[in-house]
Every structure is written in C-alpha cells, then in structure tokens.
Amino acid sequence: MDGDLGRLIEEKEKKIRDRIDDYRDTVFAILGFCSLWSFDPATQSTRPEVRTFQGRRLTQTISGSADEVTPDLGITIGNRAGIIGEVKKNFPKEANPKRKADIFKQLKAYDQELIGWPTGDEKIPNHDIALLVHQTTSMSACDYYDSIKDNEDSTFIRNFGIIQFNRADQRAQYFFFQSCSGVILETLGNVDLHNGVPVPMTAMLSMFSRSQLYDADPPAPYLANLIWGNVITQLAAEDERYPRLRRNQKIELNISIAEIVDKLSEGFSFAHWHTGYPNRQPKIPRIEWVKKACQLMIDGKEASWNVQDTELIVNYHKMDDPLEYFIHLCAEMEAKQTLQPDMFLDHP
C-alpha cells in the first residue's frame, strides 16, 4: 500500500504542477497580449487611449437578452475599437468535438453588440474576437475552425483570429504571440501579429508580480502559497517576535477571510487595471476560492477555524518552499482519498 500511495502521490503532484503551469501561462497570455496594445515601445510608456480589462461583465444585446459574458481579456482603443479575447492554453486535441464546440460557442457569444465597455456610453462601434492558444495546440484549434467556419451558425460576423503563444527560453527570454488563423484589428499599426511579436520576460515578470490571479478558480496550492507567502508572512513580520523566529518556533496569528480576500485583490489581481472603471468588475479572488485554500492549510494542521468559515487561527512558521509544501499536501490528500476514502475523510 505504501508503494502504491507513494506512486499515486507523485502522479498527483505532477498533475497539480501542470494545472499551476496552465494557470500561470494563462495569466501571462492575458498580460502579454494586452500589453501589445497598451504599451508603446517608441515612447516606452503606456498609451493613454488604450484601456484593458479582465473578467469584466458585459451584457449581450441579441434578442433583448440580458445575459452576461465575462471574457478573459478586453481592450478598448479610444472609443472607436475593441478586442475581446479568450485564453484556452490547451485547446483539445482529441477527436471528440464537444469540448472544441463548447469553446467556439463561448467565442460566438462575443460576436454581437456588447454593453459594458469602459467607455462613456459603455459601447464600442466594433470589436474583434481572439482565441489565444498555446503553440502546441494551435493547429488543433485552426483545423477545427477550418472545419466549421463555413457553417452558418459558426461564421463570425466580426473579425476573428486565432493567436498562438509560447515562452521562448533562449538567451533573451520572451513570450511570443503570432497569428495562425484569421485576422485581428491592428488599429495602432505596429502590432505585427502576422510575423509575430515578442514580449520580454523581464516585462512579463514585472507585470505578473502584480497580477497573479484572474477570474478563474486557481489550484488550491497555488492560492495557498500566495496567502502564506504574501499575506500571512506579512502579518507575521509585524510581530516583534518575527526577527528572532527559529525554524521550530511558531507565531499564532488571527486573520479573517475577508482580510485575505482584500489583500489578494489589492496586491495580486487585475484590480489595478480597473481603478478608473471599477463597475462591472467582480472582486477577485472569490471568497469560496480563499476558503478552499485555507481549508488546505487547516488539513495540514497549519491553521484552524477561530470562527467557522470566517476567521482563521494560523500557526505561522518559516517554510523553505511553501508552494512545494502545499502541492505535496494536496497531492497526498487526493491520493489517500483515492485509496482509502473512508479512512481519510475527517471533515465534511
């Protein structure tokens, strides 16, 4: 059993790391693609006429519908043009077309007039639609689009393009974006997606340090690491005992879920993009995501509920690598649930 458990834990750890990589790369894709329009390389400054947003609630207008869509990214260029984008890093390669069809159904929901853009009247005369996929799955996306684009219910009225991205780990590291199907509006004239545009990783990492959470549920170890390393550690550092804290010593701290949400939203979401137009922007991270990450800490005996689902008591201590600790903890729990569900479950 121990051998089976060990192998299963390793498998679970790999899958968790893959999910974290996918989440991070999605954030990088959002940041990098939007920066192609918002940053002017000639002046080395942001373009005042460009606004970017993430997860904004836009209202559909077809047939008087009041349904909302929340695209992964949005860009407005003055009041005259816009771009809506969806990131699907791992576009499905399998033969079953349902997942592929679901992605394009989501994209088609953007192919209409949308209300809620960060403009004076919340409207844009026209907008383009982009699907961003990793280079390793881009041909699957292009082939599928080629097979459906002549169908009446799959034809895009607006400009539609598939953009592939990848991280190039050469001497000068960068994130690379290139069009592989269709066309995206190039209003500013210098976004050469046809030949491809690199974004230096130094710039990407600087942007990522402020925006590590988008409007999708992150893997629990990823969020637990953010909480432990940037919220709880900061709180512990305010304690007079912190400078003398040894590896085997702990500081007991009280912190509310609401405080964690606020600190993560202020320091690690896309909220700083939306300071001038906060309406229609959901607060990220969602409280249920934070509770799930905190429950992981509780399961690892690093914390306990002071007030159920509201306030934590944290037994803070210094860790060498909190992310690896939470990955292993999560993998171990998942593995034990798989092998011994009745013995392992000790909370609802």
Q: How would you describe this structure to a colleague?
A:
The chain has helices at 2-38, 98-108, 138-148, 201-208, 220-237, 257-268, 287-299, 322-339, 341-344; strands spanning 39-40, 45-46, 50-53, 58-60, 68-69, 73-77, 81-87, 114-115, 127-134, 160-168, 174-182, 197-200, 251-256, 303-307, 311-316. The protein is an alpha+beta fold. The protein has two domains: 25-208; 220-344, no CATH class. The strands form four sheets. The protein has a seven-stranded mixed beta sheet with strand order 3-6-7-9-10-11-12, with helices on both faces. α5 (220-237) crosses α8. The radius of gyration is 22 Å and the shape is globular.
CA radius of gyration is: 22 Å
Low-confidence stretches: 342-348
Report the strand count: 15
Number of domains: 2
Topology:
Elements: H1 2-38, E1 39-40, E2 45-46, E3 50-53, E4 58-60, E5 68-69, E6 73-77, E7 81-87, H2 98-108, E8 114-115, E9 127-134, H3 138-148, E10 160-168, E11 174-182, E12 197-200, H4 201-208, H5 220-237, E13 251-256, H6 257-268, H7 287-299, E14 303-307, E15 311-316, H8 322-339, H9 341-344
